[in-house]
Each structure stands twice: as structure tokens, then as C-alpha cells.
Amino acid sequence: MRGRAWIGELRTWVTGVDPGLGRLRLAGVATAAMVLAAVAMSAVRAAPGSPSPWWCSPRCWR
Amino acid sequence: MVVFAAVLAMISNLSVNEPDNRRRRVTTALMVLPAAASTVVGTLLAEHRLVSDVLFVLVMMTAVWIRRYGPRGTALGMAMFIPYFFTQFLQARPAQLPALLAAVGVGIGSTLLLRGGVFAEKPEKVLDDLLRAVRAHVHALALAVIDVLEAPAGDEKAIDAALRDLHRRRTRLNDTMLLVVDRIEQLRDERGEPDEEAGEDDPRRALSLAVADLELAAERLAVSTRRLADDPARPGALEPEVREALLGGVRGIASATATGAPEPLRAAVLDAARRSVEELAAEHSGARPREQRVAFAIVRLADALTSGEGGEPAVPAPVTLAEPPEDEGEEDDESGRPVDRIALSTRQAIQVGVATSLAIVVGELISPARWYWAVIATFVVFAGTVSRGEVLARGWQRLVGTVGGVVAGMLLAVLVGGRPVPTLILLAACVFLALYLFRISVGLLAFWITAVLALLYGLIGQFSVETLVLRVIETAVGGALGALAALVVLPKHTRAAFQEALDDTVLALDETLGATVDRMTGRPPTGLPVVLARTADEKLGTLRQRAEPLDNPLPRRHGRGSYQRALRVLTAVDHYARALARLSDRIVVPGWAPTLDPAVARVRANVAGLGELLGPGGAAGSQEIVSAEELVDAAEAWAARCDDPGLRRDLLSAVLPLRRIDQVVVGFAGDLAGGPAPAQEPAESRG
């Protein structure tokens, strides 16, 4: 019972701290979009006929 | 290229803050144009260092200046800045242009696909979530009231801490209510329903009013609890049965508003809350007025929560608005100082231009390879700021966040030891946390982004403590140059920014009171009082934000004045003005005008006088503040003679907030002038 009350308090706190869960949704979608963009761009770069993958050189990660 | 596409996806998510899905999609799609243009120009000029640096500064200045066009301008400015930065950072060559443009399309396209399509916000769902958040905030406020009531007698420290917590929770509830009202208005706008034409059959108008009632009821509980704590006897000295009755009532409110509480349980605990205080509320002896007020507040909040669960709040009939005066909006509100005549976006664009030029030079001197960290730090500290105090605060937060991020990043990098799978999982987690927390603090964003960099360097085998220390140095330099520019180049004093927001708030409160009395006396108001009251509430939110860097006593003032206290007084005025505006929905009595008009006119003049008193001229330039007590008494006497008992009760309840506004304003003005404290210290001004 105490555990359930604690979970209830936590849920209430989370609901209150991020009204409408807007931040959670935005962060989730933005992370997903970043992953999608990275995967899609990797696929484009790996496609036959693409130029040499200079983007994976350490120079680009400075 | 992969990183470029991913960063564009991130930026096109974070910088687009349009209220509805359609505008959001259009803005996101439009971002392709400036992003592609600056990619092409940046790539073509990357070989010519001096020219590209000059253009980089111009791009940053434009990105800041274009913020004057609102959320869309801000987004397009970021779409211009980030790609240009990447072309310089990658030293892109013209041969890579097709791939870079593909990355622009992929990055922004990913956002359009996910945010604009697959995971597009459903406005009704967001509204439901926000209403749940409102209940959660009422729950938190009830818990804070419990803390005040349970604080031991004589423990001033504990009671004051509990009261501060109560004030914080009330502010958060207020912020969330603004989001709810915005969302409701947005839903109405999407359907093309103007507010003033909404009538009894409009469920959104009913919901909007139910939510306003709930907020007022929750605030009333907070205010009455504060007044109880002001009692010399202190709540710890309450009679045990009274304390238990009040605690029982507030605990019932807390249980009913806990997230996930089943519906049947809600109704039952709200009933129990009412029963717990019904004896106290029914007392006629007048022996415990402050305790009784808390009991009334509990009953009213329980009723408002029941109403919010499907009951019917009082919905007003449609109202005809007065024609606005022809010269409205043409007032010249610029002050005499030249810096105040320059628009905020122009002033900040110039500051950014100077600061980033210096950051390029100094950053390059420190590290020719990583000068851009200083430039980014300089650019970022100006985002969303108005005054130099805010720029300083953001610069400091970013530096602290970066230092913390370096430590965390080193620990994480050592923990994963360059293994790809755990590193990628941690990278995603850190990116998520950075994006989740960036609206709370720029320091938290810097913390997690620095951790991301440490992990990335670990992944490609370039991790070194020196690199991360260099990031701290470049960030410190960038932040310092940003702060220097804010202090030296066309500086906007933090107090001047506060003053602007104060003037706006006082004007909005004045308009609310004016429209309210017009509506109550049957004259066409200039706007809907509840809508004007909401605007005043938003202005107060801005004022609260501007007061954050100011925590010193007011300059050249005697007595117990402080910015925070001025804020509390205006918060009280705002609360009572909203209560009055809400009452105007059901009171229309033209015969009341001869006594109500002079009282409201005096109260409005006092509110305006307080604004002047808090201004740079102080008491010298302000109009005299004279208590409206006798005029309010006359309006109350007229109301008390009303034959209809229901109307009489409504009229008398409208006099109460008016009297409170006068008390808090006159009391605070007296304190600022160094005069004797008023006989009845208002609850909200308790310092």
C-alpha cells in the first residue's frame, strides 16, 4: 500500500513538473528524429555510387 | 554528414515553437530554404577564412535580429546559423555540396515526418494532459498547505519555509493554468470561434471558466492559509480539533487530486473533505475568523474540483464589446534614453555581432582548432534574454553546466571504455536528457551536451582530458565576452527591463479593472474581463521572470521594499482582479454605477500610482495614493441594500476583492514611503 502511494506521488510529481508532458514528448520526438536522420544519412552515404565516406574521418568530429 | 543531418533534425525540433500543428509543419518546411542557402554560401566561402568569418558574424546577427518576427523568425534564424556553422567547422568543399544539401533535406525531413506526421500532437490529448497537470499542481499546493498546518508552533523557520514552498507551488499552478488557457484558445482559433461570441453552448468556454474557478479556489486556499500563518497565535497553536478538521479537509483535496486516483474515490474524498470542515464553516460566533476562512476555501475548492469533473460552471451570455479608440496602439511608450528606442532584437543583434567577433579572435588565439566553442557559447547566452542580468545568469549557468558535464563525461567515457554498443545507448540517453532539460536551464543543456561530446570522442578514439578542459576554457571565454558585450554595448539594465514589464503589468491590470466595472454596470467593455485578466496574468509572468536576477532592496527606497515583495503585492492584485473579472460574468447592475465607479476609479488610480512609485522617479514622480476605503464602503452599502438575496451575495462578494486590492496597494505604498505600517497588513505582502 505504501509502495502504491509512493508511485502515486511520483506520478503526480511527474505530471506536475512537465505540464501536458510537452517536454517529454518533444525530447522523445527530437531524439527519434535525430536517430532517423543519422540512419537515413548513413544509408544515403553507404549507397553504391556515393562518394568516399569522408564524413567518418576523425577530422569531422573535432 | 551524419552528425550534420542529426543536428539539423534536433534544431528543427527544438527551435520550432509554433502553437498548432499546421503552422509547425509550415515553419519546419520553410527551414529548408535558409538552411540550404547558408549551406551553399558557407561551403563556397569556407576556403576564404576572413570573408567567411565576417559572413559568419553577419549570419549570427541576422539570426538574432530575425527573432523580432516571433517563433517563426527564431526558427528560421537557427536554420540559417547551424548549417553555416557546420560548413565552417567541417571546412566543407564545393564537391561535397550535394551530400550536404542531402543532409539538410534528410535532417529537416525527419522532423517533418515524425513531429509533423507520425507523432503529431493531438490538441485534445494535450489539453487532457494539461488538465491532469493542473490537478497535480493543486495536489502539490494541498501538500504545501498541510506542511504549514503541521508546522510546530513557535518554529518560525519551519513555518516560513513551508510558506515559501506554498508560494512556489501557487506560481507553478498559475503557469500551468496559462498553458491550459492558451491551449483552449488555440483549439477555438483552429475552429475560427472568436471568444466574445462564445456563449452557453460552447463547451470550451465552459471548460475555460471551470478551470479559472479552480485556480481561484486553489489560490484562495493558499491565501487563507497564509493569513492563518500570519496570525500571532501561529497555526501550531491551533486548537487540536480545529487543526484536525482543517488537515482532514486538505488531505481530502490532496487525495482527490492525486494522479491516477479513481473517479468514484475522488467524489467520495471530496465529500469527506467538505464534511471534515462543515462544522467549522457553519460557526457563527466569529471567534475563529482565519480558521473559518481556510474552511470556506476548502469547501470552495472541493466544489470547484467537482465542477471541473463534469459539473456546470456559470457561463456568461455573449457580450458586446466597445469600439476601440482610433488612436489605440499608437502611443509612444519609449523612454528618453537612446538605448530604449532601439528594438530589443536590433540591440541584441549588435551585441551578438560585437561579442562573436571578439569570440572568433580570442577563441582562435586559445585554440585554432576549437575556436567555435567560444563562438557558440557567446551566441547561446543571448537566446531568450532581455537584460544584461539575464545574459550574465545564462553565461554563468552554461559555464557551470559545462564544468559539470566534463566531469560526468569523463566518468561515462571511462565507464564504457570506447565500446560501441554501450556508448551509443548512453549517447542516446544523454541526448534525450539534454533535449528534455534544455527548457529548464541552459546549464543542464550544456551539462548533457558536454557529456555527449566526451562519449563521441571516446567512440572515435580521440578522448582526452585536455580537450574537455579546453572546452571549459572556450566556454568561459565565450560566456564572458557575451556578458561583456551585454554590459558595454547598448546595455539594457536589468532594472529597466523590470520597469518595462512592471509598466505593462500595471497597464494590463488597469484595463482589466476598467473592463470589469464597465461590464458590471452594463456598459460595453473594451474587452472580455476574463481575457484581459489572463493577459495581465501573462504580463505578471514576464515581470516575475525579469525580477529573477534582481534580489536586492529597491534602490533609493525607504522601508521594507524589495522586488520580490513588489512582485508579491502585484500577484495579490492580479489574483483579486481575476476574481473580480470572473464575478463580472454574472453581475450586471447598471444602478450600481454611481457608487461603484468612484471606488474602482480610486483603486485604479492607486494601482497606477504604485507603478509610478516603483518606477525610477519614485515618490517624487508619482501621483498620491489615497485609500479608497470610504468609496468602497459606499459601494458595499449600496450592495447591502439590494433586495434580491442572491444578487446581494454576488455584489458583496465583488466588493471583497476590490477592498483587498486597495489594502495591498495602499499598505505597500505606505511601506515604500517609509510611513507607518497599515493597521491590517495584507496577506500577500507578508515579507
Automatic annotation (TrEMBL), chain A:
It comes from the Bacteria. This is Uncharacterized protein.
UniProtKB/TrEMBL annotation, chain B:
It is found in: Cell membrane. InterPro entries: Memb_transporter_dom (IPR049453). Residues 358-484 form the Integral membrane bound transporter domain. It is a multi-pass membrane protein. It holds the Pfam family FUSC_2. The chain crosses the membrane at residues 27-45, 50-67, 73-90, 97-118, 371-387, 399-415, 421-438, 445-463, 469-490. This is FUSC family protein. It comes from Pseudonocardia yuanmonensis.
